[in-house]
Design a protein that fits this description.
By secondary structure, this protein is an alpha+beta fold. The protein contains 15 helices and 22 strands. Strand 1 (3-10) and strand 2 (18-24) form a beta hairpin.
Length: 478
């Protein structure tokens, strides 16, 4: 059965959202129809509006939806009509990440959340009989009604029955992102320093979780700091806070104090030998996914009292973390030119070009004109993979990335590899990242040798190397 709904349609940064009539598709067995009561507005929604993410337009956005279940498909077991539910991102449920309860890293995240359709390409929403892009994060909840999926819906427990849904909606993204960063990704423990920059829903959730405070209590603490020094550090913008000129001037000093505090804790940890301590590592994606895990596991087994913290980004982000004192060691695959950092080779991999098995460039050596004529999907700016591709193309063909027809930029190796299956695109990633998909016959390596790539160890020249850091380096080099 189909159902009419009012939806907010996004057409891009140069046009306002418009409220329009639409029709929801009939439910599939694993889907639910939810009457939306409340929905948070996340920065990701605005990033899509501004063209910063590869999501098709026009589209119905919204991914912090909360509402009442009105109908369910025949295979749905997580909720029933009448239940109050929260919605979050969707996932496939079948890939290796989903199999170990890590759906955030779903191999098929793009088609289930950002494609504008169901993962099989079918629409969930129509306007005047024509498909309208929707299914954003498996919901598109800027609407009166939305189709959700069994894997991205959670029933609000009876213990929270008195809490209005408009207060619970941000749990679907902002609140769990901030709290999860502190609890799970960073594993911040009592006594450890932490800096949170930006106090929207994500930042406030991180602070509240770390201090065991409510969001109003954190806001009151900020206000008290400003009142004590008769200086406003933040301006309120919409639902969040932004640093003003005074706050930005104070920020480097705050970062320096936190770095010094971390160094002081490191000295105390050294006095205790390797029986306790913390080691903060910043790494780019390929190194973090395929090179570091075994070495981290070996270190953890040998030194169970030392807690390892891994922050994964791209090369530029890892460099920034070292410079800011937010990391003790960095491991990247991109070129680094920073006088304050000591840079040493510690490993390597092989970068190669890949496409779908049926791509017309597959099975023959590539010439310069093939490289220029191809349609590309690349990693984001700041990525070591992207930088090394440009170095290799210049060395072999005299080309720069400006000479390529780049159709899409995505923020992870998995995302660019997944994109190869739809659109005749070519990409460059590590053979370590592409190996499983090559073995499964999903992608094919193209005949174009590139310059081999080094993995680099980064250390800040002005900061001492703790015993834990030195022990980790000894393990990594074995």
């Amino acid at each position: 059965m189909t159902l009419s709904a009012k939806v907010a349609v996004c057409r891009g940064k140069d046009a306002p959202f418009t409220i329009e009539d639409a029709t929801l598709d009939a439910l599939r067995p694993d889907e639910l129809r939810v009457r939306i009561v409340a929905c948070g507005v996340c920065h990701t929604d605005l990033a899509v509006r501004d063209g910063q993410l590869p999501v098709p337009l026009p589209i119905v956005l919204g991914h912090e939806g909360a509402g009442i279940v009105e109908d369910v498909g025949s295979a749905v077991t997580v909720a029933k009509p009448g239940d109050r539910v929260l919605m979050s991102f969707n996932s496939c449920g079948d890939c290796p990440s989903c199999a170990v309860e890590a759906p955030t890293y779903c191999y098929n995240f793009f088609p289930h959340n950002w494609s504008g359709t169901r993962a099989d390409g079918s629409p969930t929403l129509f306007r005047d009989g024509t498909p309208l892009h929707a299914n954003f994060f498996g919901q598109s909840s800027f609407a009166t009604h939305a189709i959700a999926h069994q894997r991205n819906v959670v029933v609000v427990p009876e213990s929270a029955a008195a809490i209005p849904l408009e207060r619970l909606a941000p749990l679907g993204c902002g609140l769990m992102t901030g709290a999860g960063a502190v609890l799970r990704s960073m594993k911040v423990r009592a006594g450890m320093p932490i800096a949170v920059f930006g106090t929207g829903t994500v930042g406030i959730a991180a602070i509240a979780e770390r201090l065991h405070l409510t969001q109003p209590a954190v806001s009151a603490a900020i206000a008290a700091l400003e009142e004590r020094h008769a200086t406003r550090l933040f301006d309120r913008v919409g639902r969040g806070l932004e640093l003003n000129d005074a706050g930005r001037a104070f920020l480097p000093e705050a970062r320096a104090v936190l770095a010094q505090a971390a160094d002081a804790l490191g000295v105390l940890d050294d006095l205790a030998g390797l029986k306790r301590g913390d080691l903060r590592i910043a790494a780019s994606q390929t190194v973090a996914t395929y090179w570091l895990p075994r070495r981290m596991a070996a270190f953890a087994a040998a030194h169970p009292g030392v807690t390892l913290h891994l922050e994964v980004g791209n090369t530029a982000q890892a460099v920034a973390a070292l410079l800011a004192g937010a990391a003790d060691l960095g491991f990247v695959e991109g070129g680094v030119d920073e006088d304050l950092l000591a840079v040493d080779r510690i490993g390597g991999d092989r970068l190669a070009l890949y496409a779908a098995p049926e791509h017309p460039l597959a099975g023959r050596p590539l010439a310069r004109e093939d490289i220029v004529a191809a349609c590309w999907v690349l990693r984001e700016q700041g990525s070591g993979t992207r930088n090394h591709l440009e170095h290799s193309l210049h060395a072999r063909f005299g080309l720069t990335l400006a000479d390529l027809d780049v159709r899409l930029e995505l923020p992870s190796n998995g995302a660019v590899l997944e994109a190869l299956g739809a659109g005749g695109l070519v990409t460059a990633v590590s053979d370590l990242a592409a190996g499983p998909r090559v073995a499964a016959g999903l992608v094919r390596e193209l005949d174009c040798a590139l310059v081999e790539r080094d993995f680099l160890l980064l250390r800040h020249r002005a900061r001492r190397v703790s015993r834990a850091a030195q022990a980790f380096l000894d393990t990594a080099r074995d």
